[in-house]
Amino acid sequence: MIVTLKPQHGKAWIFMKPFTKEMWAVTGAILMYTVFIVWLLERQSNPEFEGRWQNQLGTALWFTSSTLFAAQRDRVHNSYTRVVVLVWLFVVLALSSSYTASLSSMLTTQRLQPNVTDIDWLKKSNATIGCGSYSFISLYSENVLNFDPRNIKAISSEYDYPGEFESGNISAAFVEHPYAKAFLKYYCEGYTLAQPIGGVEHRFGGWGFVFQKGSPIAEDFSQAILTLSENGRLEQLKTTWFIPSPKCFNSQTPDKGDSLSW
């Protein structure tokens, strides 16, 4: 399924994306653990940790969390606290460096995402899809994928797909895999192969050659194809003929989700 690309929206919460949810949870847990240890070690010897225990914990929280944004200037009186703070400062250094680098990349690089990723969405929204006019995919889309025949448009030439996309006549194009590779070789900007949700792809066994029954060259053909497959020649041909054009190397790629995990 070939679909168009669109800029990624929703940058209001982009400052949360450098870390995954698990990473934010682990960071918060380490912070609270360090706060507790600092309070436990400093509450008897440090005069700043006087008063009610709520005030003491607040002081420990401010002492520990302020190291995330500025150099630590508050004094500690316990030697064990210095060891704890030293370890925490190393953690802060790694966190802040990774967060800054990841956020800077997200803000300066345009992120693109597919307009459509789900076949079910196409069917529910009555979106029109494009298929080759002489391809079996049109019948497959109707009989197996259960698309409404009125929402299947026959495309006579692969050169017509960009115009159909730009005019809004189709929302996705269903083509054979080799044709999709050839299409993206020349139209890499603004188009991509939709990655199926859950990893379910609609793939078939492949193409074949048909000979007259009892033909003596059928076995020779089969052996030749197996030889090309085993010695890697088929992969070399694929790499040679389906290599993207130079302009594709500079085009923006879809967002792959590069958040830092814990």
From TrEMBL:
The protein's name in its UniProt record: Ionotropic glutamate receptor C-terminal domain-containing protein
TM ranges: 23-41, 83-101
Domain Ionotropic glutamate receptor C-terminal: 35-244
Record's bilayer topology term: Multi-pass membrane protein
UniProtKB keywords: Glycoprotein, Ion channel, Ion transport, Ligand-gated ion channel, Membrane, Receptor, Transmembrane, Transmembrane helix, Transport
Ribosomal protein among keywords: no
Organism the protein comes from: Ilex paraguariensis
Subcellular location: Membrane
InterPro entries linked to this entry: Ionotropic_Glu_rcpt (IPR015683), Iontro_rcpt_C (IPR001320)
Source lineage: Eukaryota, Viridiplantae, Streptophyta, Embryophyta, Tracheophyta
Gene Ontology cellular component terms for the protein in this record: membrane
Pfam families listed in its UniProt record: Lig_chan
Listed GO biological process terms: monoatomic ion transmembrane transport
